[in-house]
Write a structure and sequence with these properties.
Layout (H helix, E strand, L loop, with lengths): L32 E3 L14 H14 L4 H5 L9 E3 L18 E7 L2 E8 L2 E7 L9
Parallel strand pairs: 1-5
Antiparallel strand pairs: 2-3, 3-4, 4-5
């Protein structure tokens, strides 16, 4: 008598752990979170005036009320953003901002930009360019 073989599971069974990209999560439908974890010391919040700090808090609060999709449809000088080419930056890009992420800029105090990158729903602020010296404006 031949031994019975165990059937291989059907393709739809198993493999229940999936990465967020595989699950089809659209992070544009999320509200942004803001992280200062990688803020560079030469462009840090501690160098800002009280007015700039208040404007920064107000800017991230206003954007946190919108989804990424809504932000993408805004003017770049309002709640929207603009893409910054890496080669135009006068400061080295930290390794945490890998080549697969775009460098983007939001305005936080007048036209002064906060520059960083987005990963999923989080915007990581790298530079607060109060003196407009990080890239050609």
């Amino acid at each position: 008598m031949a031994a019975k073989r165990i059937k291989k599971p059907a393709p739809h069974a198993g493999n229940s752990i999936k990465s967020p990209g595989e699950r089809g999560i659209n992070y544009d439908q999320f509200r942004p979170r803001f992280s200062l974890e990688h803020l560079q010391s030469d462009f840090c919040l501690s160098l800002c005036t009280q007015e700039e700090k208040a404007s920064f808090a107000d800017a991230i609060h206003k954007r946190s009320q919108l989804t990424w999709s809504q932000i993408k449809n805004q003017d770049r000088h309002k709640p929207g953003f603009e893409k910054i080419k890496r080669h135009s930056l006068k400061s080295p890009v930290p390794t945490v901002a890998t080549d697969d992420v775009e460098i983007i800029s939001f305005r936080f105090c007048g036209l002064a930009p906060m520059v960083g990158f987005r990963r999923e729903a989080t915007f990581f602020v790298l530079w607060l360019d109060r003196a407009f010296c990080l890239y050609k404006h």
